Amino acid sequence: MMRFALQARFTLSGDVSGLTKEFEKFIAETNESILKKGPEKLAVIEKYAIEKGTLSLFITSEGTLRPHNALLQIKNALSKDLGKTHHVGVRGITIENYMISFDLAHEPLKEVTIPFAEVKIQGKQATMVLSDVSEEFLRRNYIDRMMNRVKEKVENQYYEGKAEFWKLIWKSKEKPSIWTQDPTEQMESLGWLKQGPTKGKWFYRPQAAAILKTMEHIAIKEVLEPLGFQEVIESHIKPFEIWLKTGHMEGMPYEFYYVAEPKTRDAKDWERFIDLTKITKEVPVEELQKNLSAPTAGICYAQCPMIYWSFKGKTIAETSLPVSVYDKTAISARYESGGRHGIERVDEFHRIEPVYIGTREQLLSLREKLLERYKHVFNDIFDLEWRMAWVTPWYMQQAGKIADEGTQDTGTIDFEAYMPYRGTRQDSEWLEFQNLSILGDKYITAFNIKAQKSVLWSGCSGIGLERWTTAFLAQKGLDPKSWPDGFKKYLQNLPEGIQFL
Ligand code: ATP
Ligand code: ZN
Ligand code: MG
Question: Structure pTM?
Fold first, then answer.
């Protein structure tokens, strides 16, 4: 059951206190026309009052026609009606009070708040009370989104703390581990890696760089090129409008690195900043803030959003399907905060992201081929102990949902490696070193991508080079002599590196 009660006021262009009769007629007619469909009452003007230059209305409805939508229609009708006969127009609408009650699927476990309204919940009935709302606000469909947000927040309370969906698909044989050290720590003490200069970032000296680059090379030679993927190069800086479309903006605003542009590039405007820097030999942060615009973009979080953006509004030729491309240039930045560890959970990482767009059949078949190539890499080249599992796609996770088992045409597969340094196979957390998703038409619709005839789906796979590296080294150690032959074919000797005194 929904119930809406709206108290609004029209500001009119003239004094209408003399028009009692006309208004009586107008209200009665409106109740019978705009607010009615056949015998069904869509909304009702329960009360009205005129006073000099204003008309106050109290409208209720049970949801078929939302009073705020009715209001906009009434405004038009009133302008037409009184405009013609009495030259009275509507200048503006003020919402004095808007009460919206609706049912929830569950009783909330704790309080719920949202912007723009006071929320009260009794049992499974929620009531939002809004005051001082603009016409623009009504037009923009905020009301429906506010109701959805309240419902979503209550549902999320039920998912919090629930175990994530995880279903094993496949696992390799157990492999004997060569050691039980944390590869990052060991590489650091050997001088292959240097932490910093800022949080969660690393400097890869020649030895570590060679391993990371070998991972990239293997991914391209053994997985992407054999399957016909073509390389693209995207911009590193993502405007918010792209993340708004993919849902990242609402999904993980707390993980982005934001990008701010200078307000001007006129050296004159920066004079004080430069003076202060020269004199104090420190960065004058307050002065800097004055010279920066608010961020409108962020550093790459994942590469797929911008790849989809590049297809925005395009019709793809059937002969180009399935589109299969990858980016290996944009470096991802994520504010991992307390979760940072070694090179496996960092704030800046190197990733290859293949993206595919095609029909359902094309993508299901491509997924099989990708899985086959990935298996070849992890089994025959890395000789890894690893497994695959169905998990909840990120955008469902962010919305507090847990994937159902469904048909598994769409969904996300995580690839996880056993990390001997973390403990036993059973009790330790395995490392997600990459994933693979088919996401249906989510992004296709968001970016309005079309084909001549086919119905399109899309998907992507995140190949984390730091993760490939630590997974491999955690099991196989740092001595190239003990690495599997398949890997030695790609990297037999490490570069000498630099000796420090
Ligand atoms: P996690 O659950 O470990 O945080 P995620 O679900 O956030 O991973 P995705 O957004 O699915 O990761 O990114 C895909 C791939 O990118 C991961 O499988 C991993 O290889 C890599 N990746 C993600 N976050 C990081 C990180 N902080 N450091 C290194 N690699 C990462
Ligand atoms: Zn992606
Ligand atoms: Mg993450």
Answer: 0.91
Q: Which CATH number fits domain 166-259+296-488: 3.30.420.40, 3.90.1150.10, 3.30.930.10, 3.40.50.720?
A: 3.30.930.10
Ligand 1 centroid vs 205 CA: distance in angstroms?
23
Q: Any idea which architecture 2-157 has in CATH?
A: 2-Layer Sandwich (3.30)
**Is residue 353 annotated as part of the catalytic site, yes or no?**
yes
CA 425 to chain centre: 33
399-439, pLDDT tens digit by residue? 666 666 567 889 999 999 999 999 999 999 999 999 999 99
Strand pairing class (3-12; 331-333): unpaired
- Contact (CB, 8 A) for 340 and 199: yes
- Distance from residue 116's CA to the centre of ligand 1 (Å): 35
Cα of 223 from ligand 2 centre, angstroms: 17
Catalytic residue (choose from 304, 327, 348, 466): 304
Q: In sequence order, what are the residues at sequence separation of 6 or more whose Cβ sits closer than 8 angstroms to the Cβ of residue 95? A: 6, 7, 8, 68, 130, 131, 132, 133, 134, 137, 138
Helices assigned H by DSSP within 20-59: 20-32
Give me the pLDDT at residue 116, please. 93
175 CA distance to ligand 3 middle (Å): 27
Q: Is there a catalytic annotation at residue 347?
A: no
- Residue among 66, 348, 435, 466 flagged as catalytic: 435
pLDDT tens digits, residue range 133-184?
A: 888 888 888 999 999 999 999 999 988 877 788 999 999 999 998 999 999 9
pLDDT in tens, 111-137: 999 999 999 999 999 999 998 888 888
Residue with CA at minimum distance from ligand 1 atom 25: 345
**Ligand 1 pocket at CB < 6 A:** 302, 334, 336, 345-346, 349, 351, 394, 432-435, 462, 464, 466-467
Query: Does 166-259+296-488 match 2-157 at the fold level?
Result: no
Q: In the chain, what are the domain boundaries?
A: 2-157, 166-259+296-488, 261-294
How many CA atoms lie within 13 Å of 321's alpha carbon, on the beta-carbon side? 22
Contact, 11 vs 96, CB < 8 A?
no
CA end-to-end distance (rounded Å), the chain: 77
Selection from 47, 54, 56 nearest residue 17 by Cα: 54
The tokens for 337 are 């905060």
pLDDT at 403: 60
Q: Does the annotation mark 348 as catalytic? A: no
CA-nearest residue for atom 8, ligand 1, is: 432
State the chain's mean pLDDT as an integer.
Answer: 94
Which ligand 1 atom sits closest to the C-alpha of 434? 18
DSSP at 118: E
Task: Give the number of the atom of ligand 1 that is nearest the alpha carbon of residue 347.
Answer: 27
